[in-house]
Every structure is written in C-alpha cells, then in structure tokens.
Amino acid sequence: MHHSPLGRSGLKVSRISLGAMNFGExxxxxxxxxADARRIIxxxxxxxxxxxxxxxxxxxxxxxxxVGRAVRGRRDEVLISTKAFLPxxxxxxxxxxxxxxxxxxxxxxxxxxxxxxxDIYYCHQWDPDTPIEETMATLxxxxxxxxxxxxxxxxxxxxxxxxxxxxxxRVGGTPFTVLQAQYxxxxxxxxxxxxxxxxxxxxxxxxxxxxxxxxLTGRYxxxxxxxxxxxxxxxxxxxxxxxxxxxxxxxxxxxxxADEVVRVAAELGTTAVAVALSWVGSRAGISSIxxxxxxxxxxxxxxxxxxxxxxxxxxxxxxxxxxxxx
Length: 326
Fold this sequence. Notes:
Layout: E1 3-5, E2 12-14, E3 16-19, H1 34-46, E4 51-53, H2 62-70, E5 79-84, H3 99-113, E6 118-123, H4 132-145, E7 148-154, H5 158-170, E8 178-182, H6 194-201, E9 204-208, H7 230-236, H8 240-249, H9 252-268, H10 272-281, E10 286-291, H11 296-302, H12 310-319
C-alpha cells in the first residue's frame, strides 16, 4: 500500500481516500444506509487505506455519526477529516468561518464523530464576511488545544490560499497543510494557478470528483441525463449551484473525453473508472484521490489500481488539455 506525505507535513495518507458524503439520507444524491456504509468502511480500511473524509453538512450530520460509530475501537488506526462553513442553523452566526461559528461547529462535529480530535479540519469554502486573520487564529487555537491536528481548505482560489498562509504567519499560527479541490480529466482548471500555489506554499492536494461525477465512467451518452441519475437529480434540484455544476460537466467536450477513456480502458482490458483514477493519481502534487462509493462493489472497482502506460496518459492529457475548445 502506497502512502504519501500530506503536503509539507509528516502525516502519511493513503493514495485513495474514502469520501463519506453518500452515507446517510440525502435529497440530492443516491446515498447508502449505515449497514452498507460500515461494510464499505471496513473493506476500505482492511485494504490498507487510512483516510476517511466527511463534513458537518453531509446528510445533515448523519455522515459524521456513521463514520464515528464505524471506527469506534480503532480510532488510532484511522485518519478522519471533516469540514465547516455551511449553515448549521437559521441564525446569522450559524455559518461561515467566524470564531463563533467554527468553535460551535467543531464541538458539534467531535460529538457526532464520538472522538476527542479530528486529524484534518477543513474550511469548506472561503468566507468573504470574516477577516482571514480571525479564521486562522481560531484554527490555530484548535490545533494548540489538541482537538485538531492539521488544517485544510476546500475549494479556495490561489489568491485565497496565499492570503490564508500569510494570515497564519501574521498571527503566529498554524498554516494550511492541504487543499481539497475538484480535479479530473474533465475538470483541470486547478492546474493553471492553484497547483503551483499549493506547491509553493507546502500544501498537499486531495482531489474530489476524480470521475467527473460519473461522466468519465461512460454512463452519460448525451447532455440530457436520465432523471434518476446523479446528474439528472442535480439538474432538477432547486439549488442553482448544483444545476450549474451538473451543466458544466455535461458538455460535448467532456462526453468526447469520456468516450476516449472508455476506449483506452477497453484497450488495456480494464475499466474506465480505473483509467480515470490512474490518470489523476499520476499527476504531480496530488496527495490523495477522494472516492465516494455507495456500494462495496463500487468500492472494489475504485480500488483497482492499474499502471497507465505513458503514451496513453499523454494522449488523455493532450485530449483534455485546458487550451482545447470546450
């Protein structure tokens, strides 16, 4: 089992991380119940992987509860990451990255996870309403208290990463160690500025949605998905951001890339999933790939590792290059 340092830290994380967003009841995603989630977690850990990722906003906190119960009795063998920012109530101080909200959110996550600490605590997104110095000083307090071991940010721009690292320096606090960002053959925008910034400032990168929300598996044949599919539900959801994200994935360009991934997989005698994940895993700066299986069968498929021949990796790289017409 291959483990990589998380950024410029001594923490070793498995090349595959288990995303727990699908654990519990969800209105927008096909999710799985606790019994299936626990089977997935057991199989994942038995295979030698060590990082499970969740968030307080996933399935209304149920995801954290399921993860906490599943790792009870073996907490020291598992790395757990969780996140805060999204609303946890109706009040004006029940969201964001303020000291008030983060302190309340961390305590609630620790209760749901039934643990004294989290290994990685993420800012789920940037908060334009809170001074970044306040956020970084608050997070440093969590580290000093022992309730958090490493800090991360999710979906930050390059400028926001730099400002955060400088703010940590100004307040004499702990900087970010890791960025969680969308990255796949159909979502490569982080290569332009974000990946170089992470390298310069010592952040590892955990890639979410490495299969393009299923597009790279070849299951979508055109820009009008089945109503009961993941992207079909997102397109029909009342959340504008979800509509936009699904629409950006289902482009003619992305469907052409998916067709080629399927063709390469057939040439190698493997699956499109294995090809897409191997491409992400081969990219410089990627510490771990975040998968989100809903069944043990999906997990097993996601854990199938293949060596992607250099010429085929370069072919997919050229085909999906950012400079190509969308």
